Amino acid sequence: MKKVLWQVLALMLVASILLAACGTPATEEVATSTPAAFPYPAGGALEEALKGAYNGKTVTVDGAFEGNDPDGVKFAESVKAFEEATGITVNYIGNKEFEATISVRVDAGDAPDIVDFPQPGKAAQFVASGNIVPVSEYLSDEWLTQQYNQSWRDMVTFDGAEMGIFHRFNGKSLVWYPKKAWDEAGYPIPETWEELIALNDQIVADGDTPWCIGIESGAATGWAATDWTEEMMLRTTSLENYDAWVAGDLAFDSPEVKKAVESWSAMWFNDAYVFGGRSSIVTTFFGDSPTPMFDADGPKCWMHKQGNFITGFFPEGTVAGEDYGFFYFPPVDPAFGKPFLVAGDSMYMFNDRPEVRALMEYFTVPESASGWLQGGGALAAHQTVTPDMYGVELEKGIAELVAQATSFRFDGSDLMPGEVGAGSFWEHISSYVAGSEDLDTAMQAIDATWPK
Question: What CATH number should be reported for the domain holding residue 228?
Answer without folding.
Answer: 3.40.190.10
